[in-house]
Design brief:
Elements: H1 12-19, H2 30-48, H3 59-64, H4 82-86, H5 94-127, H6 132-135, H7 139-142, H8 145-152
Length: 168
């Protein structure tokens, strides 16, 4: 670490423990000793991945079993605030979660209804009396329309105007 000039910060739980030891390395009271042992146990659990922390929470706050005092952070020195040490808490709005869930359910219902509607429509369409070939035409069926019109259309008795055919 010295070769690169980068020093890793000492974890504040370690600073808290060292600040409560005498010059001989003994703890000042049994209560402090119990908290230090709890810190050691929590560090092992964190290393094993058994514990995860909420924003604004770490090993020291769990071991001491009390949240940080507003405006300061224990074992960090003067001028360190909760937001500068832990960062801003990421707020996840419950309303946004509920809104997303409702939106997903509505989308699912709309999709199901559209599928049902399409099935019913296609069933009614297929059951209708219109044959599909009469409704569709392609270029080949209309290509020689001019030639066929002259031959296939009946004309009036005076032979001057075509009589309109009544379609079926």
């Amino acid at each position: 670490q010295r070769a690169t000039g980068v020093y890793a910060p000492i974890p504040r739980e370690d600073l808290w423990v060292e600040a409560r030891k005498t010059k001989n390395g003994e703890f000042r009271s049994e209560d402090v000793k119990e908290k230090a042992e709890k810190i050691t146990d929590l560090k092992k659990q964190v290393a094993d991945g058994e514990i995860s922390f909420q924003p604004g929470e770490d090993i020291l706050t769990m071991a001491l079993e009390k949240p940080e005092h507003p405006g300061r952070v224990q074992a960090t020195g003067d001028g360190v605030t909760i937001t500068s040490y832990f960062g801003r808490a990421k707020r996840k709005s419950i309303a946004i979660d509920i809104e997303n869930i409702v939106e997903e359910k509505v989308d699912k219902i709309v999709t199901q209804r559209m599928i049902e509607f399409r099935k019913e429509f296609m069933k009614e369409f297929n059951d209708s009396q219109f044959p599909p070939n009469r409704l569709q035409s392609d270029r080949d069926s209309c290509s020689d329309l001019g030639e066929r019109q002259d031959q296939s259309r009946p004309v009036a008795k005076d032979q001057s105007t075509p009589i309109a055919r009544l379609s079926k």
